[in-house]
Amino acid sequence: MTEINISKEDDGHSGRYVARVSGNKAEAELTFTHSGPGLISADHTVAPASLKGTGAAAALVDYLIADARTVGFRIIPHCSYVRSRYEKSPEWQDVMTVAPGETPAEPIE
């Protein structure tokens, strides 16, 4: 089984969850933006080709969900990968701002 280590970087405005897979120098990331008190936007998930098939991207989303439940924030799922995983895991609705299968409105700049 592949060992995946997840860390979180957060500057108070935006941040990322980073996945590192043992034996591989590459990293996958899920970026986010703070969108208000108790609310973050999951913006983008990316894994380089060398991490495809390792489960790193899925582990990032699972960590995001666990973090939301532990810390107490809700997620705006702008990232298509996060939405895709959410459609398969409707029990995540407690931490999401939209129902499974729904696309959130784009933020107003």
Topology:
Blueprint: E1 4-10, E2 14-21, E3 27-36, E4 39-46, H1 56-71, E5 74-77, H2 80-88
Parallel strand pairs: 4-5
Antiparallel strand pairs: 1-2, 2-3, 3-4
| Overall pLDDT level | 94
Helix content: 10-25%
Which class best fits the helix and strand makeup?
alpha+beta
End-to-end C-alpha gap: 43 Å
Q: Please write the CATH class name.
A: Alpha Beta
Series of H and E elements: EEEEHEH
CATH architecture: 3-Layer(aba) Sandwich
Strand percentage lies at 25-35%
CATH superfamily assignment?
Answer: Gcn5-related N-acetyltransferase (GNAT)
For the largest beta sheet, what order do the strands appear in spatially?
Answer: 1-2-3-4-5
Protein described:
There is one protein chain. 23% of the residues lie in helices and 34% in strands. The protein is an alpha+beta fold. The chain has one domain (4-95): Aminopeptidase (3-Layer(aba) Sandwich). It has a 5-stranded mixed sheet with strand order 1-2-3-4-5. It is globular. The mean pLDDT is 94.
List keywords for this structure.
5-stranded mixed beta sheet; 109 residues; alpha+beta; 23% helix; Aminopeptidase; 2 helices
